[in-house]
Amino acid sequence: QVQLVESGGGLVQAGGSLRLSCAASGMFFRINVMGWYRQAPGKERELVASIGTDSSTKYADSVKGRFTISRDSAKNTVYLQMNSLKPEDTGLYYCNAPYRRSNWGQGTQVTVSS
């Protein structure tokens, strides 16, 4: 069974930074595009960044220039470096494979205070 374990969230002031990590099951990680999703309070879950097996990246307009997604194949881990955080970045962050989604992990909470 695929396991996705997110970590690294926390409470940070606007303008601050956080780095999220997602450890994934080996084969699932190796063959899939991986992505980070965000679910803000009262809103639907949205894809904010994705990274291909060739490390090509895509970003939602709302995070472009502030967030950087990366992957480490040796550790089966995908990262999300978040800089210049804004209160509207607050939410529960999850990782998954956008084109072959597995069960969701527990996510990691990011709270940005103004």
Structure commentary:
Helix content is 5%, strand content 47%. With 114 residues, it is mainly beta. The strands form two sheets. A six-stranded mixed β-sheet has the order 2-10-9-4-5-6, with no helix packed on it. The longest helix has 6 residues, at 26-31. It is globular. It starts with a strand and ends with a strand. The mean pLDDT is 96.
Largest sheet: 6 strands, mixed
Tell me, rounded to a whole number, the average pLDDT: 96
Identify the overall geometry: globular
Q: Measured on Cα atoms, how large is the radius of gyration?
A: 13 Å
What distance separates the N and C termini? Answer: 40 Å
Determine the structural class based on helices, strands and strand pairing.
mainly beta
Total beta strands: 10
Number of helices: 1
List keywords for this structure.
globular; 114 residues; mainly beta; six-stranded mixed beta sheet; 1 helix; four-stranded antiparallel beta sheet; 47% strand; 10 strands
Give a topology summary:
Elements: E1 4-7, E2 10-13, E3 18-24, H1 26-31, E4 34-39, E5 46-51, E6 57-59, E7 67-72, E8 77-82, E9 91-96, E10 108-113
Parallel strand pairs: 2-10
Antiparallel strand pairs: 1-3, 3-8, 4-5, 4-9, 5-6, 7-8, 9-10
